[in-house]
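Input/output pair, single chain:
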Amino acid sequence: MSTSTSSSYVFPSEQWSTPATATDAHDELASDNDDLDSLPSSIDSSEESSEYSSDAQKEWEASLQQIELLLTMVVVPYVGKYFGRKCAYWSWAKYMEWIARRRVRSPPTRYATKLEEVRAALIKEHNEALEVVKREYSMKAKEGRQEHTASLMKTKTEYDMKVKDTEAWHAAALAEAKTKYSMKEKDTEREHAIALQKARGDFSVQAKEVDLLHIAAVEDIKKGQDTKEKDTKRELVTVVHTLLPLLIPPPPSLPSPCHAGR
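Output:
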């Protein structure tokens, strides 16, 4: 039973074939193992390694146990019978060493190897795609920088033109304001001169009128004083003529010379 089982068993290593691309290898791994993420990141080569829950590991362990049973029950007694016990033990040790090596090359180990190959292929494809994206991004960035530079130059030119237009408009407005201010200043000076001249004329007229009034008043005062003086003198003369005969007696009358000669 063990012989028929071992002869009819197909090792998982015979089912593997080199994939054409990384995608094929990934599909092949996915078909053999539904959950690749459950595999450990590292495989222990010792016999006391952790147990794997995959079906391939279970089948592999079962096949190794059948081979061990076949060696123990059939091969070793046969070799010991015909070639001696020493040769039998040597053959048994060699077969056990072969089994240990086969255990080291268990399906999870090959899965990890294939996974590393797939990862390397995917990383390579990713790096190539990344290089393509970087080149395209560099080209787009270069074009974007060129467009940005052109837009910046256009904006700067428009800004310079607007600044020049604003400066020209400001200069024109300032010149116009200066002209208007000069005209207003001249008009103000002219109005001020006219008003001053008019004020001076009015003041001269008023001064002349005041002078005339003053002169007339002075003359009136003088005339009044003269009239009063004349009246006073006249009255004084009248009084003197009135009182003088009373105060001074008349002189004695003398004979007329005419009478004396006669």
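Residues 218 and 240 are 32 Å apart (CA to CA). Confidence is low (pLDDT under 50) at residues 1-26, 28-53.
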